[in-house]
Design a protein that fits this description.
The chain has 216 residues and is an alpha+beta fold. Helix content is 20%, strand content 20%. It has a six-stranded mixed beta sheet with strand order 4-1-6-10-9-5.
Amino acid sequence: MVDAAVVADAPQGRAPDGATRDAGRGIVDAPPGVADARLDARLPDAAASPATDAGTPGALGQFVIAHNAVRAVTGGGLPTMTWDTDVAAFAQSWADELKRRTGNCDVRTLATPHRPSSGEWQQHYGENIAWNAGSVRSPQDVVDGWVSEAVNYSYATNTCAPEKVCGHYTQVIWAASVRLGCGVARCDGPDVPYGVSQIWVCNYDPPGNITSQRPY
C-alpha cells in the first residue's frame, strides 16, 4: 500500500503569514512550498466516505464534528460550526468540477485547484482543499492534516513559520466562520495516481484568513 501524502493547496484569502492574495489565481502568494504543500501525515487507512446529497451530509457530516472538536479546545472555546446545505452544494460542485477537469482527480496537474475570483465558478466563501492518493481517507483524516499545521502558527505574531503552511489551520479555527459545507470526489482506475484518489473541498461562511486579523 502506498502511503501517499495528503496534498493541501494554499487556502484562499490572505494567510496569517502576511502573504498577499493572488487575485488572478485565488491562491496565497506565499513562501516556496506553500502552494501544493505536501502534508505527509502518514495516516492509517480509513473507511470510505462517499459523497452524499448536500442536504443529508451523511459521512461528510464528520467534517463538522472534526472541526468543532478542534474549536472547542482553542481560544477558550470558539463558536461551533453547523452544516450549511448551500455551502455544501457549492463545495461538492467544485469537487466534481475538479474531477472533470483533471480526468483522474490529480489536482497537481492544475495551476491551482481553487475556485477563481471571477467568472462562472467564482468563489464566494473561504476554502480549504486537500488531495490524497493511494488509500481512502476520511473527513477526520483530512481535518487532522489541516490541523497539523498548528505547530507552524504563532498567535502572538499572527504569522506562519518561515516557509511553512498554516492557513488551513487558521481557517479551521477562524471564530467567525460558523457555517461549513464540504464535498468529495473520488477516482479509481489504472490512470489514477496509485489507483485511488480523492479531492476534498470545504467551504466556510463567512470566510476566514482576513488581512491583519487574528483567527479569534
